[in-house]
Amino acid sequence: MTEAKEAILLVGGKGTRLRPLTVHTPKPMVPAAGVPFLTHQLARARAAGVEHIVLATSYLAE
User: What is the pLDDT of residues 8-22, one digit of tens each?
Assistant: First the structure.
């Protein structure tokens, strides 16, 4: 069996439980340890061998 090299990261949502941090900042861009949380997710995916990532966005997607 071959390992999947693709992933979908669910990065949408309003982040209501993270307010007030998410009032003007999308949840994936909220800093964690000095960098956006999404950066940590992408690094972990790459370390796991993921080569193609789809970001499933929604609220404040731009």
Answer: 999 888 788 989 988
H or E element, residue 40: helix 37-47
Radius of gyration, alpha carbons of the chain: 13
Q: Phi and psi at residue 20, in whole multiples of 5°?
A: -90, 0
Per-residue exposure over 4-15, b if at least 16 CB sit within 10 Å of its own CB, e if not: eeebebebbbeb
Listed in sequence order, the residues at least 6 apart from 53 whose beta carbon sits closer than 8 Å to its beta carbon are 6, 7, 8, 9, 42, 45
Whether pTM exceeds 0.85: no
Tokens for 46, please give them. Answer: 């790459």
The pair of structure tokens assigned to 49 is: 């061998």
Question: If DSSP codes are grouped into helix, strand and coil, which group holds residue 26?
Answer: coil
